[in-house]
Amino acid sequence: MTYHPKSDFLAIMMQRGFVADCTDYQALDDALSAGMVTAYVGYDATAKSLHVGHLMNIMMLRWFQKTGNQPITLMGGGTTKVGDPSFRSEERPLLTNEAIDANIAQIQKVFARFLDYDRPGNPALMLNNAEWLDNLNYLEFLRDIGRHFSINRMLSFESVKSRLDREQSLSFLEFNYMILQAYDFLELNRRYNCLAQFGGSDQWGNIVNGVDLTRRVIDAQIFGLTTPLLATSDGKKMGKSAGGAVWLNADMLSPYEYWQFWRNSTDADVGRFLKIFSELPVEECDRLGALGGSEINEAKVILANEATAILHGPDAAAAAEATAREVFEKGGTGDDLPTLELSAGEVAGGISVAQLLVRTGLSKTGKEAKRLIAENGARLNDEPLTDAGLMIDTAALSAPIKLSAGKKRHALVRLAG
Questions:
Q1: CA 301 to CA 405: how far, in whole Å?
Q2: Is 66 annotated as contributing to ligand binding?
Q3: Which of 11-15, 97-101, 207-211 has the lowest mean pLDDT?
């Protein structure tokens, strides 16, 4: 991309590595240079929390607001009932209205960490597409909106094509998703003069549909801007770790575990991640990313502190770093480690250490826990664990015990009360 933007927002996005594609760089840049622009990102409520894979677009909205524009976080109370089929091998499980509402309530808590919903002049807006989707008249919708969509074109989108090429079923319900997402963009333009939709590059087809629909129905020019699908330098999809999804809600992943995820970044990813997931100057991100030897580890600590402070606050970041230094440098237990509390009744007859590895989340299954122990990858109070059948009873838990999987993942087990 050789385009050199005039607007602060696009300049920052390109400099920091946020941009994959845009429907019209010049026209969007002109709009951003002329005054405040409103843009949105949509989030379906398929889980109780978003994860790190969503974070790039949330950071994009954060920069958008910081440069004087108005971000919209659109909750998919309506579209979640259908489920986005993009690049999925099978249909999403359908959720009840109550489950969707409960998920939205949890997800909304995260956004206040990144965006200011009370900012004078350009407050962020929290909206729910159920407001206009729930009461649609189907026949009117088909006549007024459906007639603008070409089945031939919809079949050509990569997200649909890849599913059909593998001969995997694509239901009519899912096929409607892209029409509903396009309609969201049209409605947001009508109601809030929303000029742009941001999303991952896997959303390109859905975004272009919204741009085209709005042009056809009300002859308005709007824009799509996508971020690259982020993978780690070893090719793994962003948002996953050895312990599962890296959730953004603290009740699903502790601030310490979140901090540790960033601290465990590979050397090659540090500079790139600092540009995207922190607000440090680009020059400083490049300097830290270029460090070698043991110095790169301190750069990883800075990355972990910056990312954790934005989501969970500076105090949580400082506590996580202090715990990590105690665990790794001093061999301590660290009060902030993920902790499993057991009742005396649960351990009265003893509980195997393999079960504890599963209960603490250090292993996904008992089989995996036993393999970890057999391969000398597990430790109990920093000593090698060799017996998968070792029973832990109330006497053994007279003081908290520390379990470790590999060198970087730890948890405490203690008696409740």
A1: 20
A2: no
A3: 97-101
